[in-house]
Amino acid sequence: MISEVKWEYAYTMDPVPQQRAEHNKLFHFFDELRAGRLVTTKCPACGKVAWPPRTVCPACFEDELEWIILPSSGTVQGFSIQTSGAPPGFSLPMVFARVELTEQIHFVGRV
């Protein structure tokens, strides 16, 4: 007879970050996304704006960062259209674009 083993869920192994305050220091990012706003962190000590949001400043290692709202529009610098091989639950075509929000912040995302 095989005994039943109960495993405690290991949050550190979760490929999807827990989007609640008790599980993630960056929970505010997910709250703002749900509200339709894109935010990131800014260091009050050196002024560095980080993307993606951080818990520690990559320039001076300050750990008390501020949240700032990013612009709601940007410049598309290039795009790609995927016409096959979509993951389950996604419809084709899928459009991906490289967007520049500010001089320091640019990213690739699905449009």
Compact overview of the structure:
This protein is mainly beta and 111 residues long. The protein has one helix at residues 27-34; strands at 39-42, 49-50, 66-69, 75-82, 94-100, 106-110.
What is the succession of H and E elements? Answer: HEEEEEE
Helix content: under 10%
Beta strand count? 6
* Amount of beta strand: 25-35%
Low-confidence stretches: none
Mean pLDDT: 85
End-to-end gap: 52 Å
Global structural class: mainly beta
> What is the molecular shape?
globular
Overview of this protein structure:
By secondary structure, the chain is mainly β. Helices cover 7% and strands 27% of the residues. The chain has one helix and six strands. The strands form two sheets. The protein has a three-stranded antiparallel β-sheet with strand order 2-1-3. Strand 1 and strand 2 form a beta hairpin. The longest helix is centred in the first third of the chain and has 8 residues. It is globular and about 45 Å long.
Question: Can you give keywords for this protein?
Answer:
111 residues; mainly beta; 3-stranded antiparallel sheet; 1 helix; globular
